[in-house]
Each structure stands twice: as structure tokens, then as C-alpha cells.
Amino acid sequence: MRYSRRLHVLIITLALPAAAPALAQPAAKPAADELVARGQREARAIKYGDWQKLCFKPGGAKMVCRTAISGTFDTGQTAVRVYVTEREGDGGARLQLFLPVGLFVPPGVKLTVDQGPSRKVPFTFCLTNTCIAGDAANAALLREMEAGKALVVEVVDTNMLAVTTALPLETFAAVRKGAPAQVFEQKIDE
Length: 190
Prior knowledge:
By secondary structure, the chain is α+β, with helices and mostly antiparallel strands. The protein is 18% helix and 40% strand. Strands 2, 3, 4, 5, 6, 9, 10 and 13 form an 8-stranded mixed β-sheet that branches. A hairpin with a 6-residue loop joins strand 3 (52-57) and strand 4.
């Protein structure tokens, strides 16, 4: 069967006017922070340990302290780990969250202390067994965590469902401001 060249031109001409508006203005993609999850679910049962402060004193350098809490599933797998890391005399802090792989990474992690405002923490990288979200922890967030009862962590799973869990904050302030449970010191002989 042979088509004439005129028939092809006619088909293309008839198809273009209907498609032209769609071609002229491509559909805008929603920004990552505009993502709306399709639903919500609670995380599986997570058992949280206590907040703990560990400090590291490398030879000749300022001490670095990490106030952390971990939560595990019934299987023993780490479900969430939160670190607040501070360097002696620096005045700044960094917040890092370690979460299991299998999450939708672009929206990052949404944090809320009690019923306060939420904050977004971007994922910085993933390894084979964990994804890490991190950002600077400003003084306002640290004050809220010290005064708060729960730190609500919300992520989006690959089914586009928001998954939430609440970490206890009752002892965070006392542990962060208190003496470290252990100091790891490196001495350099010169």
C-alpha cells in the first residue's frame, strides 16, 4: 500500500493545530518541596534508646561532641538515628539523620518539634544501608528541641506515603548540656 505525499502533509497539518498549544507551553514540573504524598502511615514499631553524649578529642584539635539517639525495629535494624554535632568554641551545630534506604529522596526529611513549625532537612547522600539527611542546626531549633517533648520525623516512602515517627526529647537538654558519657581522646607524641 502506497501513501501519497499529499496525504502525509494533510495528516500532519491536521494534527498540529490540536497539539500546538501543548507543544508551545511544556507542562511545569512540581518542585521537590511541593510534593504531596498520596497518604500517610505510621512507621513500624520503633524502640528508642536514651539520648547519649559522646565527645572526641583529636590530638591538638578542638573537642567535637555528638548528642545522639537511635531507634530500632523489632528485627534489630536501625530505623532512625539522630545526631547533633557541635565543635568546642565553634558556636554552631549540625543535625544529621540516618534513615533506612527505600525512601523517596527529593522531598528530604520534615522535622517538627511538638506542634511547632516544620523544617526541611535535605538528604545529603545514601550508602548501601542508610541515607543521611543533614543541615546546620540553628539556635532556635536547638532551643525548641531542649524545651520540647517530641521530635516528629516525616519522610516519604517509595509508595509516595508520608511515614512519621516521634522521637522523645524529654532528656535531650540535660544530656546535651551535661557531661559526656565518654570522651575518646587521641594523643600525639611529638
